[in-house]
Amino acid sequence: MKIDFSAVVKGLDGRPLKRNVRDDDGAEVLKDWTLGALSADALCAPIQSRDGPTIEGVSTRYSLAMQINAGGSQDIKPAQATLIQDAVAKAFPVLVAGPVIALLNGK
Predict the structure, then answer these.
(1) Which pTM was predicted?
(2) CA-CA distances (angstroms) from residue 14 to 57, 103, 107?
(3) DSSP letter string over 39-92?
(4) H/E stretch holding 20
(5) Using an 8 Å Cβ cutoff, are 85 and 101 in contact?
(6) Domain range holding 70?
(7) Mean pLDDT, consecutive 10-residue segments, the chain of 107 residues?
(8) Which residues contact 62 (CB under 8 A, 6 or more apart)?
(9) What are the phi and psi torsion angles at 22 (to 5°)?
(10) How many domains does the chain have?
């Protein structure tokens, strides 16, 4: 499936969600939160599990985050979309995770 990870994630009001980032001079600026940035952030967030993360799980998540971080349209497998949706649902509140899941489902 082809996903545009440069798509801007929008809130309930239809306006872009924003995040604080530092520019090249170190000043904080507000930038639109893209599907790619949000997905990569979620995939790189700490993994909460009873037994801790596995090496394979960390490697899979990291590789996918690197692919997504390249930006633009990316071909991903349905299982990868599910992994991203699960990570986003665990890392962010509903008002952030909901639009991401919708975009990954083609809505």
Answers:
(1) 0.87
(2) 34, 13, 14
(3) HHHHHTSPP--TT---HHHHHHHHHHHHHHHT-SEEE--HHHHHHHHHHHHHHS
(4) strand 18-22
(5) yes
(6) 2-104
(7) 94 93 89 94 85 85 93 92 95 94 90
(8) 43, 44
(9) -100, 135
(10) 1
